[in-house]
Amino acid sequence: MARRPARVVIPGNADALIALAQKVYAKSQSDPDSPLKALDMAMLNSQAQAAQDQNERAKQLARDAELATSARDNALGETRASPDTVLFLLTQARDLLLAMNKDDPRRLGDYGFDVVESNPKPEPPPAP
Question: Does 127 map to a domain?
Answer without folding.
Answer: no
